[in-house]
Amino acid sequence: MNVTTSTLSLTVADVDASREFFCAHLGYRVAMAADGFASLTRGDDAAADVVLLRRGIEVLPPEQRDQQAAGLIFALTVTDIEAEERRLRESGAPITMPLREEPWGERLLQLTDPNRIVVQLVEWTTPDEPAHTEHTGQAEHAG
After folding, report:
1. The domain 7-57+68-140: what is its CATH number?
2. Do you know which InterPro entries this protein is assigned to (predicted)?
């Protein structure tokens, strides 16, 4: 298999609201659109493309038409997450989880779009906690 691109397809109640959110706050642009459909891309980096489908649209198999995006976190790994947080706050983006750092070195924040799609921005750092070895179970400092 040779994967040439990655696309996340999301079924939502309001395609226009999610399209505006992804374009205004996450740098996506519309590659193509029609009634009840929008294909979004960033085109210049490794972010997955996003397809938005209106709930109930007939292009979906009947068993999928009434499903909506739920319980999903769309994570994008970024550089300079503090600058991204400032940019998002200044643009009025709906930040629903402020920037925080986990002990294992993950810095993250979350936004939630009008259709309740959670987008998480992540930046990885070197964790401050010492490594644990399997042999002794004791913390050891590398260096």
Report:
1. 3.10.180.10
2. Glyas_Bleomycin-R_OHBP_Dase (IPR029068), Glyas_Fos-R_dOase_dom (IPR004360), VOC_core (IPR037523)
